[in-house]
């Protein structure tokens, strides 16, 4: 029974405002489905990420990919995050985990 929800926040564009191709997200969907047996993607209306950087507010449009799992496998996620950072040309991709209870 899964007891962790893993969320991956992926940008729609790189730092030069170039949109990533759909194939980049299709690859992530495929990888997650193969490893975890399923996934959920929130891609309809992009979410907006805001943060402070050098005294200014920076902004990204993002999509969220989720999987549920019983084992966090932190070393695997660390390697996967670094792979995504390279593919999506980002200093940091946010991957976060939450404990969940299925009702």
Number of strands: 4
Beta-strand proportion: 35-45%
| Amino-to-carboxy terminus distance | 12 Å
Helix fraction bin: 25-40%
What count of helical segments does DSSP give? 2
Unreliable spans are none
CATH topology: Alpha-Beta Plaits
- CATH architect. name: 2-Layer Sandwich
Question: What labels describe this entry?
Answer:
4-stranded antiparallel sheet, 4 strands, Alpha-Beta Plaits, 103 residues
Can you describe this structure?
The protein has a 4-stranded antiparallel sheet with strand order 2-3-1-4, covered by helices on one side. It contains 2 helices and 4 strands; from the N terminus they run E-H-E-E-H-E. The mean pLDDT is 92. The protein is α+β, with helices and mostly antiparallel strands and 103 residues long. The chain has helices at 22-36, 74-87; strands spanning 4-11, 40-53, 56-69, 94-99. The protein has one domain: Alpha-Beta Plaits (2-Layer Sandwich), CATH 3.30.70.120. It is globular, with a radius of gyration of 14 Å. It is 28% helix and 41% strand.
């Amino acid at each position: 029974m899964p007891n962790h929800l893993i969320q991956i926040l992926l940008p729609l564009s790189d730092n030069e405002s170039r949109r990533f191709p759909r194939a980049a997200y299709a690859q992530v969907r495929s990888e997650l489905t193969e490893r975890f047996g399923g996934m959920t993607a929130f891609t309809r209306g992009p979410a907006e990420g805001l943060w402070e950087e050098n005294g200014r507010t920076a902004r990204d449009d993002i999509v969220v990919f989720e999987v549920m799992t019983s084992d966090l496998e932190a070393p695997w996620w660390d390697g996967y995050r670094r792979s995504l950072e390279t593919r999506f040309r980002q200093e940091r991709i946010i991957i976060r985990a939450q404990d969940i209870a299925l009702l």
